[in-house]
Amino acid sequence: MPESHAKSLYPATSAGHPSKIAIIGAGAVGTAVAYACAMRGDARSIVLQDINKAKVEAEALDIAHGIQFTPTGSVEGSDDVEIVSGADLVIVTAGAKQKPGQSRLELAESTVALMRNIVPSLQRVAPDARFMFITNPVDVVTYVALKLTGLPRNQVFGSGTVLDTSRLRYLVSLQTGVATQNIHAYVAGEHGDSEVALWSSAEIGNVPVRHWGPTLSGRLFDAELRSEIAQEVIQSAYKIIEGKGATNYAIGLAASNIAGAVLRDESRVLTISTLLEDWEGISDVCMAAPTIVGRPGAGRVLNPPLTLAERDGLTASAQRLRQVARDLGF
Predict the structure, then answer these.
(1) Are residues 180 and 296 in the same domain?
(2) Is 135 labeled as ligand-binding?
(3) Pair 172, 106 in one domain
(4) Any catalytic annotation for residue 65?
(5) Which of 100, 130, 158 is the last residue of a domain?
(6) What is the pLDDT of residues 31-49, one digit of tens each?
(7) What confidence tens digit (pLDDT) does each residue in 117-152 have?
(8) How far is it, in rounded angstroms, from Cα 235 to Cα 194?
(9) Where does beta-D-fructose 1,6-bisphosphate bind (predicted)?
(10) In a domain, 217, yes or no
(11) Which of these is catalytic: 17, 65, 191, 211?
(12) What is the pTM of this model?
């Protein structure tokens, strides 16, 4: 084989740079995100940063010992924010822990104070990164981060209701026996008690939910069943927190799913939390809506058909979130 041909087949170096994810916070959520991203190979390099030096180094080392079994190249941990430098995607999980019975919005004041402290330093070391916030209340935290950084809306977004949407699809799957991957239904609005399940556009395969017919239990997807499922989605986190203290595995997988959409430029439709401007009459608030997610970050926000009740619910959700932000001085 000619030498030039061999070189084209087996390049020694890559023109692009290896992808890097930085995760802020090595608690239950941060470590679950790091583990999920490593398992799925969302980036070549994964770093964890936390003020607890011993814990963050131990968590990273524990995952790193298994990278032979993953597509990821390296996992590191440090208490030094400089480890975040050069990250393509920064995922912020650090924040106060949600206590049993405590709403996400009650966490707002202490969490926003923390964001004032850490966000500027993250922007300093990784100014070109996409920033994804998971810390609750995620919609308020995302809005605050946008204001603190002055970055464009595509660059700063929250995990929104990607997890709630997954919970909704899981519950519809239990009712129908159809795989969750073939259930197309979204939750929008606040990641919390005022969120809205968008039943009017929900489909199983390409069959609208209202036309599905009897479920496995013989019930129909009438207003009563839809309300029960939507309430179970809202209560899911509280039930898990009561039993084990935190939700972490599913949000880890959800965050990895978003990370993959960004770093692989997948143009996926995901209900992330972004700054809305004249979306269904809603402006100047960050909350979840079906959004195209790719390498630029948060792209176009889609406008699914809505009933008047759904629109009213989303407007109320936006007003609630906007008021919290105003009360916190944003």
Answers:
(1) yes
(2) yes
(3) no
(4) no
(5) 158
(6) 999 999 999 999 999 999 9
(7) 999 999 999 999 999 999 999 999 999 999 999 999
(8) 12
(9) 169, 184
(10) yes
(11) 191
(12) 0.91
